[in-house]
Design a protein that fits this description.
Alpha-Beta Plaits; alpha+beta; 7 helices; globular; single chain
Length: 208
């Protein structure tokens, strides 16, 4: 099974690269090639991008071993939350997760459970040992390349909200997430000023 997984992912990347190379030719029919790429890889997902707030400063202050410990602990306590809520963890880069969900409400509930999990974890620890999580959510059409990566406007928005904007314990979401979520008991959306390009509006998710 692990071998099969690597072959499938490599085939997806190879196919995309071949189509991009074809698109670069002087006489290429870019519209037709774009349609082929969309047919092969276009899917609709809710995207979650997370970040550990103040992490770079912590690395500078406490060193690489502290960095590795925090990465280990955040993965240990948060990956099970992703799995319980039917998320697919595509990758971990440094202190950041990239996760996709088919269901927007599950993505929001997963984000809330993640924040509650880190708050409970932090309660018994000194400030230097705490996991301080920011979460960004986007939703819409993306190009999904196997189980390796996703690309799209809402992916970029999720990263901007999760990595650049969200503070500790915050969940920020795009207008598309707000529209798709409909009504969820105990949850409200508060509009924020910083809006990622192409997102329309952005919101802070308020939860009990």
């Amino acid at each position: 099974m692990p071998v099969h997984r690597r072959v499938v992912q490599s085939a997806s990347v190879d196919r995309l690269q071949a189509l991009i190379a074809e698109r670069l030719k002087p006489d290429a029919d870019k519209t037709a090639i774009d349609r082929r790429i969309d047919d092969l890889f276009g899917e609709t997902w809710c995207i979650m991008a997370t970040d550990l707030c103040g992490f770079s400063r912590g690395v500078a202050d406490f060193g690489i071993i502290h960095f590795l410990q925090t990465i280990y602990e955040s993965s240990r306590i948060l990956v099970p939350v992703v799995e319980r809520n039917d998320g697919i963890l595509l990758k971990i880069e440094g202190d950041s997760f990239l996760v996709i969900y088919r269901n927007v409400q599950k993505a929001i509930r997963s984000a809330i459970e993640m924040q509650r999990t880190v708050r409970e974890y932090n309660a018994a620890r000194e400030s230097t040992e705490q996991v301080l999580l920011g979460v960004g959510l986007g939703y819409g059409k993306v190009l999904r390349i196997g189980d390796e990566d996703v690309f799209g406007v809402e992916v970029n928005s999720a990263y901007i909200l999760g990595e650049d904007t969200a503070r500790a314990y915050e969940i920020l979401a795009t207008q598309a997430v707000r529209d798709a979520a409909e009504e969820i008991d105990g949850i409200t959306f508060e509009e924020i000023a910083k809006i990622p390009p192409g997102a329309g509006k952005a919101y802070r998710v308020r939860y009990q």
